[in-house]
Amino acid sequence: MTAENAPQAMYRTKEGLGVWEHRGKVAAVGVGHSPTARRWDERPETSVGAWSILALRRAIEDAGVSPDQVDGLVIVPVTTTGAFWPDDKPLPIEAINAFNQTSDPLDGIAKLSDEWLLKNMPELTNIKYSAYGPVCMSNALNVASQAVGDGLTHTCLVLKAWHNLEGRYYQGGKNAANSTDGTSAIKNIWGAPASYGTALQFAEYCRKYGKTHDMMAPFMSNSRRNGLMFPEGYWAQHRPEELTSEDYQLARWIAKPANLFDNDIPITVAAAYLFTTAERAKDMKQKPVYIMNHASSETKPRSMTPTLDEVEADTARTGRMIYEGAGITADDLSFENMYDGFTLFHQFHLEGLGYRGIKFGEALDFYQGDITIEGPNPVSPSGGNIGSGRSRFWMHTDCIQQLQGRAGPRQVTGVKPEIAVSGGPMPLGGNYTVWSATPD
């Protein structure tokens, strides 16, 4: 079985579609995580393939199902979060030979296919549906939600994994050259065009609304605090260090006004979830968390990077799609877990959602209040990528666990966890999921 990218028809990308036809009929039950590491140490047992298998098996076990009950698999095939494998570097033969191989020797090492997983997980004997959700977990979740709702699979595993090899960040293509020219010299600065673009948008935001970069400090400290209560996260496992306002404000600039801490730390890690029908979920081990809607933005910027006006227009439109499809309003949200890999656009998501009545230009003032898990306005209780390392899935795990009542020390207590939203990555081009403790 060879998977392909899910067709565009599976995504909800327009306003006016009404309530999602499968609202409350699909549920997340199992969660599985691998350990984390800063970089791959080239041992077979810590490869992206090995940790993917571990995460998948843990999700199956967590849900309390047998592997032969699983009939669907949705994964993200691209796993790089740092350097690519250099063409002139010898292949890691020991790691490759430790597993059943596909035609690509770097499958399970620097990328991942459904074929490789099925070759190395013989217990998955009944997979009938397999698809790729490109880019990140947020995309794969949308594909899996729709697939279960449409009856293409009834018990589906969803996986996102990252490898982080030795070498310069995103050292591939033009970024591997000694110099770049044309638009790449601007857009791909430091190999991270998103950081550069976000810095431009945030600079315009501060100019337009009279804000400053230092006003981000409470959000940063809160995110690290929450991340340190996420036992599977990188900072909790390896560097249990608080991030103070002074640490943040004194950090070196990467693309001013984005500093070192405004960019998440690349790591190697994997996570998996088990989705099923609401009816089947009743008999599984964990409390079901129901999916009320999924939404996607496909807006393209007019130029190299989105302007602030484009970001604000699209996040507002995305917010309307999120609420329309779920049949809720902003007042129904217990908390939010929007993407924060580049922290300077987290508030764009919040303002587009109108979270707690926030309007454009008001999020940084909102951060100066109580945004803790103990307060009435929880912001990013997962800690996000900033609090736990670059994965793009902590926020989804947290939503599930918060609504199941098993988020441990980071459990939201200032409000009753009933409905939450998560997603990303970018304000333009993101994928979002609405989660609920009940199917109604």
List the helices and strands and how they pair.
Blueprint lengths: L25 E8 L14 H16 L8 E4 L17 H5 L16 H7 L8 E4 L4 H13 L5 E8 L21 H4 L5 H17 L7 H11 L6 H5 L6 H5 L3 E3 L2 E2 L9 E9 H4 L7 E8 L11 H19 L8 E4 L7 H8 L9 H5 L16 H5 L5 H11 L14 E6 L6 E6 L4
Parallel strand pairs: 2-3, 2-4, 9-10
Antiparallel strand pairs: 1-7, 1-8, 4-7, 5-6, 8-11, 10-11
Helix pairs in contact: 11-12
User: How would you sum up the major sheet?
Assistant: 9 strands, mixed
Beta strand %: 5-15%
User: How confident is the prediction overall: mean pLDDT?
Assistant: 93
Structural class: alpha/beta
Describe it.
There is one protein chain. The protein has helices at 48-63, 93-97, 114-120, 137-149, 184-187, 193-209, 217-227, 234-238, 245-249, 278-281, 308-326, 346-353, 363-367, 384-388, 394-404, and strands at residues 26-33, 72-75, 129-132, 155-162, 253-255, 258-259, 269-277, 289-296, 335-338, 419-424, 431-436. It is an alpha/beta fold and 440 residues long. It has a domain at 8-168 and 266-281: Thiolase/Chalcone synthase (Peroxisomal Thiolase, Chain A, domain 1), CATH 3.40.47. The strands form two sheets. Strands 3-2-4-7-1-8-11-10-9 form a nine-stranded mixed β-sheet, with helices on both faces. The chain has a two-stranded antiparallel sheet with strand order 5-6. A hairpin with a 2-residue loop joins β5 and β6 (258-259). α11 (308-326) packs across α12. The chain is globular and about 60 Å long. The chain starts with 25 loop residues before the first strand and ends with a strand.
